[in-house]
Amino acid sequence: DAGVIQSPRHEVTEMGQEVTLRCKPISGHDYLFWYRQTMMRGLELLIYFNNNVPIDDSGMPEDRFSAKMPNASFSTLKIQPSEPRDSAVYFCASSLTERGLRDGYTFGSGTRLTVV
Amino acid sequence: GENVEQHPSTLSVQEGDSAVIKCTYSDSASNYFPWYKQELGKRPQLIIDIRSNVGEKKDQRIAVTLNKTAKHFSLHITETQPEDSAVYFCAARDGAGSYQLTFGKGTKLSVIP
Q1: What is the DSSP string of A74-99?
Q2: What is the full per-residue pLDDT of chain B (113 aa) written as tens digits?
Q3: Are B43 and A91 in contact (CB < 8 Å)?
Q4: Minimal CA–CA distance to B104: which of B13, B8, B4?
Q5: Shortest distance, CA B80 to any CA of chain A (angstroms)
Q6: Residue A63, exposed/middle/buried by CB under 10 A (0-12, 13-18, 19+)?
């Protein structure tokens, strides 16, 4: 199992540009989460999906952020237009619920986004 | 929603000593409490977890305790080694059907050789 795969690992972009982050969850996992990590705020949940359906997007900071999960093996997080304060490490994580038990998350390697 | 407080934010210990990190949570319905270790520049990785029907769980040098009445849980690392140096995050998952984890702010543990 290759784990949760994120791309790109690093992204440097200019303010105002569109940024798309990608995630491939572990095969068979039914939950997918997008987190943002900064020194000031720690790990913040942005949005999560269950069986490809968005369940809670209350953590999405504003309309510039959007996320999709068109199928069980792929999700994107898009920022348009990007701003310097969006600079952070963005993690994708997936998990599997089994018989009502809730497993821990498996995180991807993250995308370090720098907006200049 | 759930709120998780974690203390201390930084912790330095001598190699071989024990380290304790404490977390409190606000939602009494929370029923799952994992701990993650994040080394510099790497992803958070699950190291141990505990469910609300258990008071203590051990795995070699690490243990987690849970006090549901007081709504706090702790991570204990014994015989610390330099490779234990990392940021540790606690988290809580509410019992109301949501599958999201709320994380503490993290504790940076430094083990001094």
Answers
A1: EEEEEESS--GGG-EEEEEEEE-EET
A2: 789 999 999 999 999 999 999 999 999 888 889 999 999 999 999 999 998 888 899 999 999 999 999 999 999 999 999 999 999 999 998 766 667 788 999 999 999 99
A3: yes
A4: B4
A5: 24
A6: exposed
Length of chain A: 116
CA A49 to the chain's CA centroid: 10
Residue B55 token pair: 């008071």
Cβ contacts below 8 Å, chain A against chain B, sum to 44
Q: Quote the strand ranges of A1-116, DSSP E.
A: 5-7, 10-13, 19-24, 31-38, 42-50, 53-56, 65-71, 74-79, 88-95, 97-98, 101-102, 106-107, 111-115
Structure tokens at B10: 């930084």
Cβ B46–A95 below 8 Å, yes or no? no
Main-chain dihedrals φ then ψ at residue B79, nearest 5 degrees:
45, 55
Whether residues A45 and B102 touch (CB distance < 8 A) is answered with yes
Q: Which residues numbered 72-111 in A keep a CB inside 8 Å of some CB on B?
A: 91, 95, 97, 102, 104-110
Chain A residues within 8 A of B86 when measuring between CB atoms? none
